[in-house]
């Protein structure tokens, strides 16, 4: 039985007992009990019915990634003072989604969940997670009580990783519809770090092959970005194979890319993301902050190396833990 229901039942039993006793007491004694009992009856419900704060986690679907992050968040956030509600979006929720009472913060996982919450105009603070930076602007504009933890890795991490692969890196990037907006950020950071960078715009899937061929002539590292118009199940095999034949190492953005043939990937695992969201949520709620923090890239990240590809390309790398430590130290300076 929930603690607040148990307290309520205990109060009712005590109150009932004393009211039942009043008729058998003498008038003077009866009046002695009545006034304190009234005060007790007025104050006790205020304590017993003080509802815990609530956090709603809305997932965009039943993807294993969403489910793993949602469950990890619930485990990290749940406490006697806080209730955590898990909901998974489906088409039937278009008009029937109800936000539980006492919700103080909404956490959305994925783009669809973010769009659904936006259309509800609840006025509640919202933390959007697992969304690309390129898609965040329409969810965050014209409001001060919304923030995001992006799906993307920050460009400085990716460029620092390139420096570990090649002391004189010339990075090639294929930019599609979702990543074209990051072009200037990459160019500026590369200039600061003394790196060369080349890019090609991909406006259709048919352009991936020809643009990649040109890019591999100019660059000695290929940086893959999470853009489905460029990197998808129809194109990724040929991209990785062409890069390997050209002896150009590929930096991927997920563990799957390492398994498919990329030299190395830098990414945030579900545990990394859940940890970051939980820390942001706890700090906001426990400190009674008036505003959510500014949107940011994932705080925690992981690295995975394909040792077979490294040997074939004659590349020697530090251990995964050493790479994480190096990048963390450099980006915190």
Q: What is the β-strand count?
A: 11
CATH architect. name of the largest domain? 3-Layer(aba) Sandwich
Q: How would you spell out the order of helices and strands?
A: HHEHEEHEHEHEHEHEHEHEHEHH
Query: Count of helices?
Result: 13
Kindly report the name of the CATH homologous superfamily of the largest domain.
Response regulator
Give the overall pLDDT as a whole number.
86
Anisotropy-based shape:
elongated
Q: What about the largest sheet?
A: 6 strands, mixed
Give the CA-CA distance, first to last residue.
Answer: 51 Å
Beta-strand residue percentage: 15-25%
What's the Cα radius of gyration?
Answer: 28 Å
CATH fold node name of the largest domain? Rossmann fold
């Amino acid at each position: 039985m929930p603690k607040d229901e148990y307290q309520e039942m205990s109060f009712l039993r005590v109150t009932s007992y004393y009211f039942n006793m009043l008729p058998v007491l003498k008038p003077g004694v009866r009046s002695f009990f009545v006034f304190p009992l009234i005060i007790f009856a007025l104050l006790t419900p205020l304590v017993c019915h003080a509802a815990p704060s609530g956090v709603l986690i809305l997932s965009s679907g039943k993807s294993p990634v969403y489910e793993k992050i949602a469950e990890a968040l619930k485990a990290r956030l749940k406490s006697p003072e806080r209730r955590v509600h898990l909901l998974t979006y489906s088409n039937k929720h278009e008009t029937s989604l109800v936000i539980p009472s006492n919700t103080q913060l909404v956490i959305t996982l994925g783009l669809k969940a973010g769009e659904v919450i936006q259309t509800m105009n609840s006025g509640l603070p919202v933390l959007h997670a697992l969304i690309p930076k390129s898609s965040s602007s329409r969810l965050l504009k014209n409001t001060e009580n919304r923030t995001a933890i992006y799906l993307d890795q920050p460009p400085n991490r990716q460029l620092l990783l390139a420096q570990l692969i090649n002391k004189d890196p010339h990075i090639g990037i294929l930019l599609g519809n979702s990543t074209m907006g990051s072009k200037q950020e990459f160019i500026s950071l590369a200039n600061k770090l003394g790196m060369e960078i080349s890019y090609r715009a991909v406006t259709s899937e048919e352009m991936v092959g020809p643009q990649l061929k040109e890019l591999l002539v100019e660059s000695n590292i290929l940086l893959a970005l999470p853009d489905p118009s460029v990197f998808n199940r129809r194109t990724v095999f040929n991209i990785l194979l062409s890069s390997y034949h050209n002896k150009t190492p590929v930096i991927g953005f997920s563990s799957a890319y390492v398994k498919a043939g990329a030299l190395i990937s830098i990414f945030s695992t579900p545990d990394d993301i859940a940890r970051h969201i939980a820390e942001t949520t706890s700090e906001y709620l426990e400190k009674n902050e008036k505003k959510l923090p500014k949107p940011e890239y994932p705080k925690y990240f992981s690295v995975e190396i394909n040792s077979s590809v490294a040997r074939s390309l004659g590349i020697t790398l530090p251990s995964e833990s050493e790479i994480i430590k190096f990048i963390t130290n450099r980006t915190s300076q």
